[in-house]
Automatic annotation (TrEMBL):
Four-carbon acid sugar kinase N-terminal domain location: 5-229
UniProt GO MF annotations: ATP binding; kinase activity
Protein's recorded name: 3-oxo-tetronate kinase
Phylogenetic lineage: Bacteria, Pseudomonadati, Pseudomonadota, Betaproteobacteria, Candidatus Accumulibacter
Cited function: Catalyzes the ATP-dependent phosphorylation of 3-oxo-tetronate to 3-oxo-tetronate 4-phosphate.
Protein source organism: Accumulibacter regalis
Enzyme's top EC category: transferase
Length: 428
């Protein structure tokens, strides 16, 4: 049986975030790291292809996304989803708009939605403006993001700068009336020559109604929240399993081994999570300046962890406040600072697994991508949710005798303050 929903995510934690929402809604889901080289498991309803295209050059992001689309089309997927961050972290040049428009062209469709709302994580869209909690995006911590600073909360305005097609709005006044009202507004926008609709959403009920209204759209774009409302469409068509299958969608094989956290994100949420972990467990700081000076920080971190990780979970982190990040970037360069940290944390993660870590939490999209690559993981089976948008996963491995490796790939902005402390309780 072929998968029903084919998804393209622009980073690794975003892919996991989306996959977790689909599992929560009853779809058996796997996440593939990059474009798959072989077949997917038979018992799968949705496939998420995670790319590393969020901050890559626009042309490269488009090429990778189109290649992923072609693979998903070849597997027989009936609908397609382009997933990006719930804080819409895109510059005036892209990459969200150009990638979405290229996917529309490839699918031969003239209309889609853009809805990064994820109310459970405090991301809502109202009158086309994106809020983080009760704060406009441009007044939140995202305004200081080192790679994609967000200074304009108007999604209509931001997206219109990136695309050729017109951008309209489906306001909350229509959304709250339900599926049919939303569909009527879609029709109005199409009639008026709009190719994109920013859709308001302030609750999960909104997401469910929007999802229902998107049943006939070849392409849906958004954060992971909107995915909550898509599985119901396949269920109505008799294409998705019953309630028993839905309940088993999040099951993972038993896992064991030692426990560790590797954190590279510098988001406000992750900063708080690091501090909470440091107060309870041993922690090692990865200093980018020491890396730049040629110190073998990787060896030092693993030597430090060797005796401690057998006793309790350990934290190895490069997480820092924005002002310190900017100071480091000014001294050694933005790109170099990022690549040094990513490479070091990925090598440390590999070393930790070799030391016997079988349950590993990774914080930060770029860090997660680097870690997954270092570990040589081709795919992930999605398991139980820890916090909204962050599930445990199990690495898909070719060797049936290999020990199961459990991974939680956390977007920097997601998770409660005690995330690192409580995550282990969600594994069997």
């Amino acid at each position: 049986m072929s998968a029903l929903l084919g998804c393209i995510a622009d980073d690794f934690t975003g892919g996991t975030d989306l996959a977790g929402m689909l599992v929560k809604a009853g779809m058996r889901t796997v996440q593939m790291i990059g474009i798959p080289q072989g077949p997917i498991p038979d018992d799968v309803d949705a496939v998420v292809i995670a790319l590393k295209s969020r901050t890559s050059p626009v042309t490269e992001a488009i090429e990778e996304s189109l290649a992923a689309l072609r693979w998903l089309q070849a597997t027989g997927c009936r609908q397609f989803y382009f997933k990006y961050c719930s804080t819409f972290d895109s510059t005036p040049q892209g990459n969200i708009g150009p990638v979405a428009e290229a996917l529309m062209d490839a699918l031969g469709t003239d209309f889609t939605i853009a809805c990064p709302a994820f109310p459970a994580n405090g991301r809502s869209v109202y009158q086309g403006y994106l809020f983080v909690g009760d704060t406009l995006l441009s007044e939140s911590g995202m305004r200081n993001h080192p790679l994609t600073p967000m200074t304009d909360p108007s999604l209509v305005r931001v997206l219109q700068q990136q695309v050729q097609r017109g951008v309209g709005l489906v306001a909350e006044s229509a959304v709250m009336q339900g599926e049919q009202a939303i569909a009527r507004r879609f029709a109005e926008l199409r009639k008026n020559g709009k190719g994109f609709a920013i859709v308001d959403a302030i609750s999960d009920d909104d997401l469910m109604a929007i999802g229902a209204a998107c049943a006939d759209l070849p392409l849906v774009t958004g954060g992971s929240g909107i995915a909550l409302g898509l599985p119901q469409n396949f269920r109505r068509q008799g294409l998705l399993g019953d309630d028993a299958q839905a309940r088993s969608a999040a099951s993972l094989p038993p896992t064991g081994g030692l426990r560790a956290v590797v954190s590279g994100s510098c988001s406000i949420a992750t900063q708080a999570q690091v501090e909470a972990m440091r107060a309870r467990h041993p922690a090692f700081n990865v200093d980018p300046l020491r890396l730049a000076e040629g110190d073998d920080v990787v060896a030092a971190a693993l030597d430090w962890a060797k005796s401690r990780v057998t006793q309790e979970p350990v934290l190895i982190y490069a997480t820092a406040a924005p002002e310190l990040v900017r100071e480091i970037q000014a001294r050694i360069g933005v790109e170099r600072a990022g690549s040094l940290v990513e490479e070091a944390l990925a090598s440390i993660a590999l070393g930790l697994v070799e030391l016997g870590v079988g349950q590993l939490i990774v914080a930060g999209g770029e860090t997660s991508g680097a870690v997954v690559k270092a570990l040589g993981i081709d795919g992930l089976r999605i398991g139980p949710e820890i916090d909204p948008g962050v599930p445990w996963t199990a690495a898909i491995q070719n060797d049936p005798a290999a020990r199961t490796l459990a991974l939680a790939l956390k977007s920097g902005n997601f998770g409660s303050e005690d995330f690192f402390l409580k995550a282990w309780d969600h594994l069997a």
